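INPUT
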Amino acid sequence: MTFDVVYGLSPLLVVALGALLLMLAEAFGKPNPQGLAPTGEVSDAGAGRAGELGMGAAVVLFVGAALSLGVWLAGPDNLVGLELTRPYLIWDRFTVFVCFTLCLGGGLSCLLAGGYLTEHEIDRAEFFPLVLFSTVGAMALAAAGELLTLFVALETMSLGVYALVGLRRTPRSSEAALKYFLLGSFAAALMLFGAALLYGATGRTDLAGIGQAIAAIGQGEGPGAAQVLIALVLVVVGLAFKVSAVPFHMWTPDAYEGAPTPATSYMAVAVKTAAFAVMVRVLLIAFGDERLTSWASGWPPVLATLAVASMTVANLVAGRQSSVKRMLAYSSIAHAGYALVAVVATIRSPAAEGSILFYLLTYTVSTAGAFGALILCGSRGKEAVSYEDLAGIAKRHPAAAMAFSLFLLSLAGVPPTAGFFGKLYVFQAAIDAELYVLTVVGLLNSLVGAYYYLRVIVFMYMREPAPGATLAVPMRSGYVASALVIAAVLVIALGVLPNVTLEWAAIATVGRS
Amino acid sequence: MNFTWLPWLALFGALLPGPLRRLRIDPALVAGAVATLGLGLLIRTTPEVVVLGQTLKSSVPWVPSLGLAISLRLDGLGFLMCGLILGIGLLVVLYARYYLKPEEATGRFYGPLLAFMGAMLGIALSENLLLLVVFWELTSISSFLLISFWQFSTDARRGARMALTVTGLGGLALLAGVIWIGQIVGSYELTQVIEHADVLKAHPHYPAVLCLVLLGAFTKSAQFPFHFWLPHAMAAPTPVSAYLHSATMVKAGVFLLARCYPFLAGTELWFYLVTITGMLTLLIGSFLALFQNDLKGLLAYSTVSHLGLITLLFGLDTDLAPKAALLHLLNHAVFKASLFMAAGIIDHETGTRDLRRLSGLFKPMPVTATLAIVAAASMAGIPLLNGFLSKEMFFTETLDADDIFGRSWILPVGATLASVLSVAYSVRFVRQAFFGPPATGLEKTPHEPPRWLRVPVELLVLLCIAIGVAPALLVGDLIHAAASACVQGELPPYTIALWHGFNTPLVMSIVALIGGILVYARRERLFRGVEARLSVSQGRRAFEGIVAALVGSSQRLERALRLDQVTTHLRGLLACAVLVSAWLLLPALARVSPTNTSGDLVLWVLCGVALFALAGVLLKSERPLTAIVYSSIVGLAVTLTFAYLSAPDLALTQLLVELVAILLLLAAVPHFGLPPRDKRSSPVRALDGALALGVGGAVTIGCWLMLSTDVASISRYFLEKSVPLGQGNNVVNVILVDFRGFDTFGEVTVLAIASLGILALFDHLAQRQAPSDLRPRTPLFLQSVTKLLLNLALLTAVFLFLRGHNAPGGGFIAGLTAAVGLVFVYQARNPTGAPARRPASMSRWLAAGVLLAALPGVAAMLFGRAFLTAGHVHLPLPLVGEVHLSTVLVFDLGVFVVVVATVLAILPTLGRLPLGKPTAEEER
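OUTPUT
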C-alpha cells in the first residue's frame, strides 16, 4: 500500500526532495570564487555555481521524467494504493503522461539556465529551486482532482514563475514580472471565486462530485444553475489566462520577453502544459455535463472562439515582431490556440485528449529547443535578439543554425518532425469531432506560422549581416548544447517513430464518466 | 532491392553529397548514381507493371494509431511518373554538372535535389494518402531550397517564398481534405478509398472534400488563379527550372488529379471545377506567354498553359480523356525540359535571356538552335513530333465531351484558340532567338556550349521525335497501363497513332498552325498596348496585396493589442467579460422570478450615502486627502449598515479598520505622486462609461441571481452549537477562534508574513537617518492628551479582549484598538518620521504572535486531541468575579499581538521613506 503510493508519486516526491536539497546546497554551498558578481550586489552563497546547480536540477527533473516512465510502465491503475490520494490527487495515466512532459520541459530549461546564467553573469542560483518547486506545483496541478488542491498547486506553480521572470534585475524584467504577477493573481482570484461559487452551488469540492451534482442540477431549472454558469465563466477565464489564450494573453509577450530566456522557455512549456492538463480535467470532469458540453449551451463555443482568436491574432502579430524572442512568445500563444482546438474536440472525439497530450509533448521539445537555440546563438553583450542579429549565423555557427531550423520546422509542423504529428493528430481529432471550420482556420494559421518561422531560417541562411551591425556571437556551453541535443533527438524521434508515444497518449485519458 | 527502395534511396542519398565532397568525390556523381540506380530498379519492374498491368504493393506500419502506414504501390501511373522523375532527373544532374560553376555545384545543390527527387518518388508511389501528404510537404520544402539556391538574390528569395507559401497553402488544404476522406471512408489506403468511392461521392461533405483536394492540386500545378508563383520561381538556376517546372513539381498537381480520379471524379462538380479551371489556365497561360521577354518567363507561362491543358483533360468526362492527359503529361515533360535546358544554354553562352536582345543565334550555335527549334515545334504541335499526338487527342476529347453550360462549341473553340496562341509564342521563341540579324552588345560572344551540356537536350529531342513517329511502339503500353491505373477500370480500345484520317481534330490543328503564324505576324497590331499593362502579373499583384493586407492588419492589430497600452487590453478584456456574461447570464435571468425585495428605507439611505461617497472617491482621485475623506464616509456607511442589521462585532471591526486604514493612508499621502492627466478623447470616455455600465450591470445581475436563489444557510448550525461546543456566546468570535480556528491561524500567519515582506521591501528604500533639524515640534498639549488616550485605549483593548468570547470584542478588535492608541502617540511625537526604534524589531513581535497563536493548538495535540481543540477553565477572580478562561484566549492573544505589531511595523516604515522619487543610485 505505502509502496504503491510512494512509487506512484515518486516523480512528484523526487522533484520536491531535489528542490529542498538544491535550496540547501544553494544556501550553504561554498561560493565559486571565480564566479562572484562584480556588480557589487550582495552575492549569495550559491553565486557562480549556476552551472553545477543547473546540472543538479536537470538531473533531478530527468530522474522525475524517468520515474514517470516507470510509473507508466507499471501502470498507475495497478498501484492500488494510489486510491488513497483520491480525490485530491488523481494519479492516472493522464497525469503521469503530463508529469513526464513537465519534467522533460523543466529539465531542458534547467540545462539551458546552467549555461545561460553563467554566460550572462546572472548570479542567482535560486533559479533552480524555484523551477523545481514550480514543477512540483505543475505536477500537482495536472493531477488535481479537487478544487483546493487545484488552487494550491496553481499558486505553487505560479509563484515560482513570477520570481523567475523578475530574476534579472533590469527594469524590463521587473516590469514583466510585475505585470505577470498582477495579471496572474487576478486570474487566480477569478478562479478562486469560481471555485467558491461551485462549492456554493454543489456543496462539493472534488471535481467528480461537482460533475455529478451539476448533472443533478439539470436543465437550468434548479437553484444552482446560474452559479454554475458564472463559475464556469470564471474558471475558463482563469485557465485561459494561464494558457495565455487571446484575449487573455496580454501579459505573455512582455513577460516572455523580459524574463531570462531559460525562464521564458520554462514558462512556455511547463506552465502551459500544466494549465492545459488541468483545463481538460476540469472541463471534462466537473463541467462534463451533457448540457455544458453541447454546442448550444456550454463551453465549446467559448473555447472555440478563444482558439480562433488565439491562432489568428497571435500568428498575425508574430509575423511583425522584430525580436525573435517576442515572435516566439506570440508563437506560443498561437500554439495554445491549436491545443484549444483539441480541447474543443474533446466533446465529440475520444481521441482528442490524447491529441492534446501528444501535442503538448511535441510543443514542449520544439519550444524548449527553439529557445535553447536562441540562447546558443548569442553570448554576453552580444545576444541574439532581432532577426538582423541572426543574419548569416549559419556561416558562423552552422550547428546552432541547424538546430534552430530543426526546432522551427517542428513548430511549423513540417514532416517528418514531431510538430507535424502533433498538428496532424489534433486536426484529425478536430475533423473527427466535426469541427471543420476550426480545422480550416487552424490549417490556414499554420501557413501564416510557417511564414514567420521560415523568416528566421531565411535570415540565418540567406542573409548577410548589414555592414557595421553588431554581430551576435554564439556562446559555448556544454549545458545548452546537451539540452539542444536531447531536444533535437526527441523532435526527430517523435517525428520519425511517433507510434508508441501516440498510442500511449491515446490511452491517457482523464476517464470522464 | 525492389521498388519500395526508390524514395528512400533518393532521400538518404540526399545526405551523401555534402560529406562525400570532402572526400573529393564529385557530388554530381553521387546524384547521378542514385538516379541511375533508381532507374534500374524501376525498369526491372517493367514486365509486371507495364506489360501485365499489375499493381505492386508493400506496406510497413508506421503510425497505426493515426492510420499512417508506409504503404507504397507501383502501378502504371506511378511507373510513368517515376520514369519521368528519374529519367529527367538523371539528365538534369548531367546538365547541372556542366551548367553550374564548380564552386556552386556542392552538396547544397545536390542534397536538396536528391531530397526533392525522393519526395517526388514518394508522391508517385504512395498508397497511403497521408503518406502522400507527407511527401507532398517535403517537395515544398526541398523545392524552396532549390529555388532559393542563389540565395543572395532578392528575386530568388521572393520567388522561393512565394512558391512555398502558395504550394504550402495547397498542401495544408490537401491535408485537411485527406483527413476528411479518411474520416468518411475509415482508411487512408488508396485501395480502400477507391473501393468506397461511391460512399465518398454520395457523402454530404463531398463538395468540401473535393474543393480542398483540388486546392492542393491546383496550387501545386500552378492553375489559375494560383499560376503566378511559377514565373517567379524562374529565379532558380536553370537545371532546377528544367526539373521542377517541366517534369516534376508542377506535375505533382496533375498527378494528384490522376490519383484521385477513381474516387473523386465523375461528378458534375468535378467536371465543372476542373474543366473550367483548366480551360482558364490554358488560355491565360498561353496568352501571357506571348508577351514574355524573358526566355524562361515565356517557357514558364507556356508550362502554365500546358498544365491547364492536362487539367482540362482530367476534367472531361470522356473515357479516353485521362489517357490523353497522361500522354500529354509525358510529352510536355520531354519537350519542355529540353526547351528549358536549351534556354539555359543560351543564357550560359550569351549572358542574357532577354528576347529583345537576343537575335540571330542560329549562326553561332546551329546545333543548339536546331534542337530548340525541334522542341519548340513539338510544343506548337507540329506533326511527326510528340506534342502533335497529344494535341490531336486533346482536340478529339474536347469534341466528344459533354456540353459545358449547355454549349457544345465552348470547349473545342477554346482549345483551338489556346493552340493558336501556343503556336504563336513558339514561333516567337524561335524567330526572335535564332533568326534575324546577329545580336549585338551581348556580354559573351555566342558559341556552341560544351559537348556534355548539350547531350541531355539531344537525348530529349531525340525522344520527342521517336515518340512522335512511333508512339504505339514506344509508349503505347506505358500510357495504356498508366491510364488503366488512373481510371481503375477497363479502357476502350484506342491506339495512339500518328494518322487517324482526315477528321475534325486535324482541321483544328491546321487552323491552329496557320492562325498561330498569323497572330505572331500581326501581333503588334493585335495587341497594341496590352504588353505594357501586363508588366506585373495580376496574380502576383493580388498575392502581394494579400500579404500587404495581412501585414497591415497585423500592424494595426499589434498597435491595438500591445501591452504598453494596458488600458486597451483592459477594455478588450472587460468587453469580453460583459459579452460572455450577457450570453450566459441573461437566459438565466429570464428564469428567475423577483422575490423578497427588501423595502427597508434605512438600508436604502445608507446604500445611497455609500454610493455617493464612492463617486466622490472616484471623482476626487487626483486630490488624495479629499478622496480619503470620501472613502471614510463609505466605511462609515458600511459600519452603520452592520450596526443597523444587528452585527455589532462586524460594525466594531469595520470602524476600527477604517480608522487604522485612514491613519495609514494619511501617513502615505506624501508619497503619492501626482496622478497622470486624463488624456482620453470624449468618445473614448463615452466608451469607457458604457463599459463601466456593462461591467456593473453584469456584476449586478450576477449578484441578483446569487441572492435570488434559495441556499440553505449554515448560520443556524453555528447559532445552535456555539455554546455547547465552543463555550461562548459571541458566535462570531467562537467561529473565529474555535470552529474556524485553523483559518484564523492561517490568516494571522499570512498577515505576519505580509508585514515581514513590507518591512523587508521598505527597509531597502528607507532613509537611514532622518535629518533631525527638520523635525517639527508638536504641541505639548497634544503629546499629553495622547498619552492619556493611550492608556484609555489600552484599557479598552484589555476589556474588549477579555469579554470577546461572550460579547462583542476579541483579539482582532482589541488589537486594532490598542494599535489606534499607539498610532496616536506615535503621530504626536514624530509627525514626519524618525522612528522611536527600528521597526525591524517588530519582526520578533510578529513571530511571537504567530507562535502564541499556535501554542494552544500544539498543546491540544500533546493531549491527544486535534490541532486547536479548545480547553476551558473557570477561574474565580477577586473583584472581577468568575472568569471563564479558555485556551482560545491564548490563541486570541496571538492574534492581538500580530495585529498590533503589524500596524506598528508599517507605520514608522512609511514615515522613514524618503520623499520624492528615489534617485537612480538608490533604485539600484
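end of record. Chain B touches chain A through 61 residues (CB under 8 Å).
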